[in-house]
Amino acid sequence: MHKSLRKKEIKELATDYSNLFYDKILETLSAIKNKERDAIENAANIITERFLNDKVLHVLGTGHSMIITQELFYRAGSLVPVNAIMDSSLLSINAVKSTLTERLSGYAKVLLDYYGISKNDVLFVISLSGVNAVPVEAAVEAKERDVHVVALTSVKASSKLQPRNKYGKRLYEVANITIDNHVPFGDASVQLKNLPQAVAPLSTIANAFIVNLMVIKVAENYLTKGLQPPIWVSSNVPGGDEANERYLKKYQNKIRHL
Q1: How many structural domains does the chain have?
Q2: Which domain holds residue 240?
Q3: How far apart are alpha carbons 58 and 142 in whole angstroms?
Q4: Beta-bridge partner residues of 136
Q5: Is residue 11 part of a domain?
Q6: Which of 98, 131, 143, 242 sits 20 to 30 Å CA-CA off 149?
Q7: pTM of the full predicted structure?
Q8: Whole-number Å distance between alpha carbons of 168 and 161
Q9: What is the CATH number of the domain that holds 226?
Q10: Is 201 exposed, middle or buried (0-12, 13-18, 19+ CB in 10 A)?
Q11: What would the 3-class secondary structure string for the chain be?
């Protein structure tokens, strides 16, 4: 009887916490949908205009944010003209090394030069904290090159942190357009009894939601102009490789990974 009761309690706890996390996700996504629509659409409009003028979208995300860079690059249903800045020294798998590199002043310029970021392109910078040297300095350097900068960050979390870059600025303070992911300070969202720190991060879910809303809007912009949007097709779909081949030929000289 005692064992059965214990199992029942555990099951109920698991159900409660799954509901709590689900509610947190819905709360965050609802805030994005209701409060960030204009910013997302403005960013999509700028990206569309630049694509139509043969420019590309450079995407920089350090640490865990690089997951979203990969999400936007060469995946079925994602935008083709995306130059993904996936520098190995900034991968989260490198742990402490990548954290230190992200705080290395001057490294952003090296990245922008290496990935060929030029006038009238768009730079999409993803950084939850928005205070470290690489994302902030990349944004500033890009603007000096007449590149339009879109930031994806947590304004609330960032405002509580001290800048760790030579400009003493936060990402949302220097970008042309800021999209707030409404992720809580520290990212984690669920507080468990007898555990001092929260668990269950939200940023990956929130950021993926935002970038895909942006992709949808860019595609819609193309369709309203009577044009075929530049979207990758899954290679698992019959004819997918052939459909992608034309994009490879068109963008291989502009996108480093192609």
Answers
A1: 1
A2: 36-251
A3: 10
A4: none
A5: no
A6: 98
A7: 0.91
A8: 11
A9: 3.40.50.10490
A10: middle
A11: CHHHHHHHHHHHHHHHHHHHHHHHHHHHHHHHHHHCHHHHHHHHHHHHHHHHCCCCEEEEECECCHHHHHHHCCCCCCECCEEEECCHHHEHHHCHHHHHHHCCCCHHHHHHHHCCCCCCCEEEEECCCCCEHHHHHHHHHHHHCCCEEEEEECHHHHHCCCCECCCCCCHHHHCCEEEECCCCCCCEEECCCCCCCCEEECHHHHHHHHHHHHHHHHHHHHHHCCCCCCECCCCCCCCHHHHHHHHHHHHCCCCCCC
CB 220 within 8 A of CB 236: no
CA–CA separation, 110 and 60 (whole Å): 13
| Cα–Cα distance, 118 to 93 (Å, whole number) | 29
Tens-binned pLDDT, residue by residue, of the chain (258 aa): 455 556 666 566 666 888 889 999 999 999 999 999 999 999 999 999 999 999 999 999 988 889 899 888 878 899 999 999 988 888 877 778 888 889 999 999 999 999 999 999 999 999 999 999 999 999 999 999 999 999 999 999 999 999 999 999 999 999 999 999 999 999 999 988 788 899 999 999 999 999 999 999 999 999 999 999 999 999 899 999 998 998 988 888 888 888
Task: Judge whether 85 lies within some domain.
Answer: yes
**The two three-digit tokens of residue 51, written as one number:** 């694509």
Residue 153 has φ and ψ, to the nearest 5°, of -155, 175
